[in-house]
Design a protein that fits this description.
- By secondary structure, this protein is of the alpha+beta class.
- The protein folds into three domains: about 150 residues, no CATH class; about 90 residues, Helix Hairpins (Orthogonal Bundle), CATH 1.10.287; about 140 residues, Histidine kinase-like ATPase, C-terminal domain (Heat Shock Protein 90, 2-Layer Sandwich), CATH 3.30.565.
- It is built from eight helices and eleven strands.
- A five-stranded mixed β-sheet has the order 6-8-9-11-10, covered by helices on one side.
- The longest helix is centred in the N-terminal third of the chain and has 53 residues.
Length: about 425
């Protein structure tokens, strides 16, 4: 979830609740104000009527030519004291021939002879249903306008304020330890982002130094190991030519096999270091289809006893500029992997188009770990002579060429490795 979306969610809900509370409060405040004004008018009207009645003056019509009305009823008992009571009722309006909501005042008064009277004064008031509908409509429009305004303000404010963060994230996405260094150019007047830029640049520089030293160490160590490994292998060859017992010869052969495996492992590590350090600058046009077919012919002879069938489908040629030596190594590792990890009487399917290739082979009925399959030294099942670096080398070469390598497995026991150009 984006930061702007997260903050928007945190703002919209409280804002909506605030508008709802404001609407309820505004509704009751309007009613209270209307009732106060109407009550004052009713009280003044009732005093006028009671004074005229007590003074014997001519009384106005009960409706007074308006929707206001009154009536006076004599009381059977004397009121202890004058009373005032207000209520909301529905009354019949003759002019409209319908019931209307009204504010009603009931009060008592006493004439000079001590007789008590109940005066009821009524005046139509606002339609509460209409008021509720109007408030609901306008508060909904207010809420909607507020949400839209918040969206626009947040979108504009965050787009402008978070530009340094987005530039920093883009730079981090492009940055690679094994590629040329692109300086961080992210000017900002926001202190927090400035500190973040400084921290990221500092740690990036430190990590590049560590990575460079590590690569140099692996390269130097692998290079220095080659000579003693070769010397040990030659001495064992000489030792094997001397008169030895059968058990001694068997031990010598075991040591030779171990040294051979160690030498291959060392050469693979040295190759990975050279790839990471960009020590293969030369490029040429590579026809992947021709390269695949040549490697298949070579390896089919080696693994002919396993009865593996091979099918190549090339819908379009895939050609691009790359280092020929590295592409030869990558294709060899992929094709050899398809033979080595296949089953007897299995099959290999190669598909090539102008955007990449895929190599599918039958194999174990369990999938490989898709997250670790291209990691160095990953071997789900230890196989004799395998260094666990073949696919890691292919992944490193693909990344150097700007390609993406992926692994896929189907329930039918088919393992597929694909190299595709980045879109």
């Amino acid at each position: 979830m984006k930061l702007s979306t997260n903050i928007l969610q945190r703002i919209v809900l409280p804002a909506t609740m605030l508008v709802a509370i404001w609407t309820v409060g505004f509704y009751f405040a309007i009613l209270d104000e209307v009732n106060d004004e109407v009550d004052d008018a009713l009280e003044e009207y009732s005093e006028t009527i009671s004074r005229r009645y007590l003074a014997g003056e001519p009384m106005a019509d009960a409706t007074n030519g308006t929707n206001n009305s009154y009536h006076i009823e004599p009381l059977d008992t004397m009121p202890v004291a004058p009373t005032l009571s207000y209520s909301n009722e529905d009354i019949w309006i003759e002019s409209k021939s319908e019931m209307e909501p009204a504010r009603v005042l009931r009060t008592t008064f006493v004439d000079m002879e001590g007789r008590g009277y109940l005066l009821t004064v009524m005046t139509p008031t606002i339609e509460k249903k209409d008021l509720k509908e109007a408030l609901l409509l306008w508060s909904s429009l207010l809420c909607l306008s507020l949400v839209v305004l918040v969206l626009i303000v947040i979108a504009i404010a965050f787009h402008r304020s978070l530009r340094p963060l987005y530039r920093l994230l883009d730079w981090l996405d492009r940055s690679r330890f094994d590629s040329s260094h692109e300086p961080l150019d992210n000017p900002t007047n926001i202190s927090e982002f400035a500190r973040l830029n400084e921290a990221v640049d500092r740690y990036d520089s430190q990590n590049r130094i560590i990575y460079q030293r590590q690569s140099e160490f692996i390269g130097n160590a692998s290079h220095e190991l080659q000579t003693p490994l070769a010397i040990c292998s030659n001495r064992l060859d000489l030792l094997a030519e001397t008169p030895l017992s059968e058990s001694q010869l068997a031990e010598v052969l075991k040591v030779q096999s171990t040294l051979s495996h160690l030498s291959r492992l060392n050469q693979s590590l040295l190759l990975l270091t050279k790839i990471d350090n960009h020590q293969f600058p030369a490029t040429e046009q590579v026809d992947v289809g021709q390269l695949i077919r040549r490697k298949l012919e070579e390896l089919q002879e080696i693994y002919s006893g396993r009865g593996i069938t091979v099918e190549v489908q090339e819908s379009r040629k895939w050609q691009f500029a790359a280092n020929g030596t590295l592409m030869d190594i990558a294709v060899t590792n992929l094709v050899k992997n398809a033979f080595v990890h296949n089953r007897p009487q299995g099959r290999i399917e190669v598909r090539i188009d102008d955007k990449g290739l895929s190599i599918t082979n039958t194999g174990d009925a369990t999938p490989l770990d898709g997250e670790r399959v291209f990691s160095r030294f990953y071997q789900p099942h230890k196989r004799e002579g395998s260094t666990g670096l073949g696919l890691a080398i292919v992944a490193s070469i693909s990344q150097r060429n700007g390609h993406t390598i992926s692994y896929d497995y189907t329930p039918e026991g088919l393992h597929t490795f694909s190299i595709r150009e980045n879109q």
